[in-house]
Design a protein that fits this description.
The chain is α/β, with parallel strands linked by helices. It folds into two domains: 246 residues, P-loop containing nucleotide triphosphate hydrolases (Rossmann fold, 3-Layer(aba) Sandwich), CATH 3.40.50.300; 353 residues, no CATH class. The protein is built from 22 helices and nine strands. Helix 1 runs antiparallel to helix 2 and helix 16 packs across helix 21. The protein is globular, with a radius of gyration of 29 Å. The protein binds guanosine-5'-triphosphate and magnesium ion. InterPro entries: BDLP-like_hel, Dynamin_N, Mitofusin_fam, P-loop_NTPase.
Length: 654
């Protein structure tokens, strides 16, 4: 069953990817041949990344929008559970398989990129039983993820489709989806045409998607068949206008479909019905996007990385060629002298790592404390917010008896309070929290920046003493350290990171951390999201308390405000921890990159000398053969460089 006929874009992409992999393999050989094993490891990792290329498309949206039905329609069969009740309980990955197969992963496995030992095979028709909400409702969840192998053309071309739990139905399940957002390369947000782009959807999109991949979102408006026929154009125009008021999105990314019709059409082998459903338009648009964007994200950065490594290796070859002209004994003495300083640099690296660790731990604690304080402040303000809401509310709060009425009012009240809390915390994020992080980064820069500069100077001294003994200490730009850093940084640059381009600096590091702030924040606040807060409070007995109000002689406003405040106080420590953990994780990632960069800068120098010494020893008399091998490598590098440039150019022009 394949929906996409025109695969030329994919084929071109695959062709380039293959070429890039070959280039990287050659490069790895050359780098090893030039005596740079550490750099060669980096190249090997790069190869793995390009070879192991999957593009993950997350299908997200509120419950019942038709996410699972959309994927089923693409598969041509009802594979994923879909029904009118909240249904999907876990992330379900659809990926390529020659034959249809299902797997389940236990809750504690987090692996999403392929099978591992934890996978439990399950018949496809039995999947529904295991991964619907009902099946998981009693007791703790057993399964954390499902995987479906399916002969879908799109998947064969390296795309994983991920079905996700609805966003507005349960905090835990929404969290599963939202945490996955930044792992996805693209997001398909499914709406219902009957109420597309509701306020809660807008909030979710702004808080969780806008930060990451503005370019990589599809707006899929489903259920068009449920709109009154005479009204369809009108409804579509309204939805388009509402979405475009906030998002700059063209017709290729804003598509109306009837997923149910598409599924039925494919099940019945009725191409006209499929075409009429609008789904093929979406599938073609997705394919086009995957062809162009995927290349941009998955081909261009690694190709640029190849060029960085080429430049580094060419320098290394020049250095080694120089060393090979030297007297072995003299070089051995030089190396002996450099050993101590090199060892000290290794220790410096460890020291820098430790002081970054300490700084980071302090930052984490400060963020956590600030978050906790702010949450408690919000709790303290709940009561007065409640009364403001009451005054500005059209509905009178105290004159009713009917329970439904009371519930409705309590719900409105909760919603309004939830909004106030979110606003209050959002102001904090934009103001005080951002300031704190900025100050911490500057402080870190002051503390470590100097040590890094010193490291750089010491390394350069060693380099000069070994490679340029005649005193022609021509400083290379960029320095060895900066080369090391950009090599390490470039390798780890991921889509969504602000570090693309891989020029190291603490300011860039900050840029990389700040977008994460919104995610950290969104997750921490989820409990106060639209629709969720009231459900949580109702579950915690708010309604029962309200019913007893007559006896308690307390107003609804006070009761609801108290309940919200209590929830805030109860959850403040955990929410504060979540927020600070998220930010910390992002900092820690950057720090690892710096650490790798320092290590490879030292290794680069060390390995060149050891290589030259080894060659001089091996050949006793003459190193001519090694030299001519190195020169051949140098020529190969020129060629690799040109081909990498051409790979980049093909996408820059497309
Ligand atoms: N009429 C009509 N019904 C649809 C359409 N798409 C989905 N449905 C139905 O709506 C119900 C919900 O669809 P699902 O695909 O389960 O929705 P979901 O977004 O995956 O929901 P959760 O997993 O609960 O978050 C199912 O009964 C579908 O058959 C559509 O385009 N038109
Ligand atoms: Mg579903």
């Amino acid at each position: 069953m394949t929906a996409i006929q025109d695969g030329s874009g994919f084929d071109q992409f695959q062709g380039l990817r293959k070429e890039l992999i070959e280039l990287i393999e050659r490069l790895e050989g050359v780098v090893r041949g030039a005596g740079q094993p550490t750099l060669a490891e980096t190249v090997a990792e790069l190869r793995g990344r390009v070879a192991n290329d999957t593009f993950t498309v997350l299908v997200a949206g509120e419950f019942n929008a038709g996410k699972s039905t959309t994927i089923n329609a693409m598969l041509g069969q009802k594979v994923l559970p879909a029904s009118g009740n909240p249904t999907t309980a876990v992330l379900s990955v659809v990926r390529w398989g020659e034959t249809e197969q299902g797997f389940l992963y236990r809750v504690d496995t987090t692996k999403i990129d392929g099978l591992d030992e934890a996978a439990v095979p399950v018949a496809v028709q039995d999947l529904t039983r295991h991964i619907t909400i009902d099946s998981q409702s009693d007791g703790p969840n057993t399964w954390g993820m499902a995987e479906i192998r399916w002969p879908l053309e799109l998947c064969r071309r390296g795309v994983d489709l991920v079905d996700s739990p609805g966003l507005n139905e349960n905090i835990e399940r929404a969290r599963i989806t939202l945490e996955f957002v930044n792992k996805a390369d693209a997001v398909v947000f499914v709406f219902s045409a009957l109420q597309a782009f509701s306020e809660s959807e807008q909030k979710i999109m702004e808080e969780h998607l806008q930060m990451f991949c503005h370019d990589n979102i599809f707006f899929l408006v489903n259920r068009v068949n449920q709109v009154d026929e005479d009204d369809v154009e009108n409804v579509k125009a309204g939805v388009r206008a509402r979405i475009r008021e906030r998002w700059d999105v063209g017709d290729d990314r804003l598509i109306f479909v009837n997923a149910q019709g598409a599924l039925k059409g494919r099940q019945n082998g009725d191409p006209a019905q499929v075409e009429a459903s609008g789904l093929p338009v979406f599938e073609r648009s997705l394919e086009h996007f995957l062809t162009t964007q995927r290349a941009r994200l998955k081909i261009v950065p690694p190709a640029a990385q190849v060029q960085t490594v080429v430049a580094t290796t060419r320098d290394a070859i020049e250095d080694v060629l120089g060393l090979l002209d030297r007297n072995r004994k003299e070089l051995a003495d030089k190396y002996e002298q450099a050993r101590g300083p090199l060892e000290r640099l290794r220790q410096d690296r460890a020291l820098i790592g430790r002081s970054m660790d300490n700084h980071l731990a302090a930052t984490r604690a400060q963020i956590q404390e600030q978050a906790r304080r702010r949450l408690i402040q919000a709790a303290d303000l709940c009561l007065s917010w409640g009364h403001e809401v009451e005054r500005s509310n059209k509905v009178t709060l105290n004159v009713f008896k009917a329970k439904e009425n009371m519930n409705l009012l309590a719900e409105e009240m909760t919603e309004a309070l939830g909004n106030r809390v979110r606003q209050y915390l959002d102001d904090w994020r934009k103001g005080e929290l951002t300031d704190l992080i900025r100050a911490r980064v500057e402080d870190l820069e002051a503390q470590v920046g100097e040590k890094l500069d010193m490291f750089d100077r010491d390394l350069e001294d060693i380099r000069v003493s070994i490679f340029e003994p005649a005193g022609i200490a021509e400083q290379r730009s960029p320095s060895a350290l900066n080369r090391g850093l950009s090599t390490a940084l470039g390798l780890f640059v991921d889509p969504g990171s602000a570090l693309v381009g891989a020029q190291f600096g603490f300011k860039d590091m900050l840029k990389g951390v700040l977008p994460q702030l919104a995610l950290a924040f969104g997750i921490g606040l989820l409990g106060f999201g639209p629709g969720v807060l009231f459900a949580a409070l109702a579950g915690a007995g708010l309604i029962r308390t309200l019913w007893k109000l007559d006896k308690l002689n307390k107003s609804i406003v006070d009761t609801v405000a108290d309940a919200v405040a209590k929830k805030l106080r109860d959850e403040a420590p955990e929410m504060a921890r979540l927020i600070s953990d998220k930010i910390y994780a992002e900092f820690a990632k950057q720090q690892r990159r710096v650490d790798e960069g320092l290590a490879s800068a030292v290794a680069e120098v060390d390995e060149k000398v050891r290589f030259a010494l080894g060659e001089l020893e091996r050949h006793e008399e003459s190193s001519e053969q090694t030299k001519s091998e190195l020169k051949a490598h140098r020529r190969t590098l020129v060629e690799i460089d040109q081909r990498a440039a051409s790979v980049i150019k093909q996408w820059a022009l497309s």
